[in-house]
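user: can you give me the structure for this one chain? tokens are fine.
assistant: on it. calling the predictor now.
[tool input]
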Amino acid sequence: MTQDATGPAPPLGQQRLALVVRPPPELLRAVAARTARPEVAVRLPPVSDPHLTLLYTPCRLIDPRRFRQAVGLLRTALPLAIRYEGVRVSDHLTVQLLVHPPDVIRALHIRTLDALDLAQYAAGPPSARMEAFDTTNVGATFSPHVTLARFTVRVQAEAAAFRFTDLPPAEQWVSEIWIADATARLDHRLAVRPRTS
């Protein structure tokens, strides 16, 4: 990982990696149109453009050999049909666009954790998951979603969520999962695509 305009790259122990799906452009345009509304403009912006995170983890937990196995697993899981529909406010006051089918995506998340030999870190209570992964959205309770906005006050989050309820459902045939540097703003580095015979 390289140096950018914000300064030198952090030490390896502080770097983060994410496996993400980029939503279709028409959905991103619809989200941007609603994000520009005055009621939503009071939000704290997400760090990165809207995306579905399949896994977020510190690089220090990743073994290179196991990572190659996980990439192989993802290649065999693609392509994948998903749908974006429904909005909620999380316990952390983020406005989230829900992703379906959640059980299929959660199963792929769990299989990826297993391939990386990280399941033991994800099996603990929220405090242990936060300590290991810097997020609690990992393991059996993983909830697939796209973060649209962040707030510090629930009433503002709920008012903003209402402004996103008219987003039309969007379908996506996922043909690639991106390996991204998630240390700061997402930097999409490499696309994992289906294995061809």
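assistant: here you go. Strands lie at 16-21, 52-58, 80-89, 94-100, 145-150, 170-174, 177-181, 187-192. The domain at 16-183 is CATH 3.90.1140.10 (Cyclic Phosphodiesterase; Chain: A,).
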